[in-house]
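Complex 363.
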Amino acid sequence: MAYKIGVIRGDGIGPEVVTEAVKVLDAIGAKFGHEFNYTEILMGGCSIDATGVPLTDEAIATAQASDAVLMGSIGGNTSTSPWYKLPADKRPEAGLLKLRKSLNLFANLRPAYLYEELKEACPLRDDIIGDGFDMMIMRELTGGLYFGARSTVEEDGQLVARDSLTYSESEIRRIAKRGFDIAMKRRKKVTSVDKANVLDSSRLWRKIVEEVAADYPEVEYEHMLVDNCAMQLVKNPRQFDVILTENMFGDILSDEASMVTGSIGMLSSASLNDTKFGLYEPSGGSAPDIAGQGIANPIATILSAAMMLRYSFDLDAEADAIENAVKKVLADGYRTIDIMPRDGSDVKKVGTVEMGTLIVERL
Ligand code: NAD
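Predicted structure with nicotinamide-adenine-dinucleotide bound:
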């Protein structure tokens, strides 16, 4: 089959890591008989340099016409780059926010997976890690506290600040459905996280999640309060499969979950809407400190491409092939600079291109 992929190379290490992900996709296409057609999309600092704005209408239209978009990362050094002398709505990150909004990307997925070979990077004790963990944080991305009305006013001689947290039934239902759909592709367990002992929005969240759960009898589900979940993530991360939660809780819990896995260079992510379309990108930024040196870890972007195959194209065997090749390359002792062991154990240090090639060889 043929698939249209929009490609945002972006800034900093973005072009370097995207090139490796495309190399892996091409090898998958050849092996499994698919045609991946790429269209370049300018976004971020490179778009500012070329067009004066971080994202043009034409770029949005190209993204909309794609089956999925693969992205590196955008932005530069926020202290020294001239892009950060521009007004906020003209800076690189404004392009990404505009793209997410234009494509209605309301569901954010961040896997937290601990590789056996990288256990050393995990700050948890061996008995807690056990044989590793593999969870997916599903965060609502376009509602809740970050999008509610806010104000700071003077009342009775002092400043008072207000933020409002609003969720509608339909907003909760669409993300809950996504969460249960993803669980069906995994170990069929959903932990819905809220603060239903205090917040009305969480009580509605719980009610709607229960309604949605009724349509997925094969999926085991539970509710967990967010404070308990924060604790359980470091006490017993192995209990989780899909963690389904609202915007702010997900923001905090996804960072906590990713921290317990180790390197930022390994973490993929996806943002989805209510079609099969998705935007797939590494969780890290454009790493301007190491850009152009050929040393960035391309694995997060390569794993993001695997997520694209799984969630936008339903190509599970192809996604498995990429994930297994990544495991194999680590087992064979190859490491980029960010995942080098501290204890000096015997591994082989490789650069961005070599890591991409080694993964292709193991597909
Ligand atoms: P960063 O994630 O770019 O870098 C943090 C540290 O992690 C750096 O030391 C970097 O070298 C390292 N690192 C990140 N990815 C790596 C990889 N693949 N391989 C090896 N090392 C890697 O975060 P930052 O420095 O805070 O931000 C830099 C720029 O990225 C800023 O302009 C920021 O706004 C932007 N940013 C963009 C996105 C995005 O495009 N979605 C996300 C976060 C940050």
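The first helix runs from residue 14 to 32.
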